[in-house]
């Protein structure tokens, strides 16, 4: 059902509407109806955007903090590995026992990392949180 409306619009808008409605299959009521429907839909979208913006801003800040923390950890790890490789002498090829001990230690290390990740325990807990293990 259509409802008749009497509206006042600016002369420029009226002239533009007349120009659009000059086509053979165009009609002013349909043009105004479609334009108003689109405007109302956009307005609802803007309201949703206004509601979500603070949450998205907070998530963006938190993500930036996580990225910074990851950068610090990766840089720390790479500096430690570089230092360790520079100061530790390589094992001689003939020292099979030392190489076996190294492999066993590495396997134990990888297993420990896996267990820590699986249980959610962290050696380095965030500042102020409880439950840091060593």
What would you note in describing this structure?
70% of the residues lie in helices and 0% in strands. The chain is built from 3 helices and no strands. The protein has helices at residues 11-20, 28-87, 96-119. It is rod-shaped. The termini are far apart.
What labels describe this entry?
rod-shaped, 134 residues, mainly alpha, 3 helices
Question: What's the number of helices?
Answer: 3
Which overall shape is indicated by the principal axes computed on the Cα atoms? rod-shaped
Our measurement of the CA-to-CA distance between the termini, rounded to an integer number of angstroms, reads 73 Å
Query: In sequence order, what are the helices and strands, one letter per element?
Result: HHH
Biggest sheet layout? none
Using the CA coordinates, give the radius of gyration: 34 Å
Helical percent range?
Answer: over 70%
Number of strand segments: 0
User: What is the averaged pLDDT score?
Assistant: 85
Class per helix and strand makeup: mainly alpha
Task: Tell me the β content.
Answer: under 5%
Unreliable parts:
none
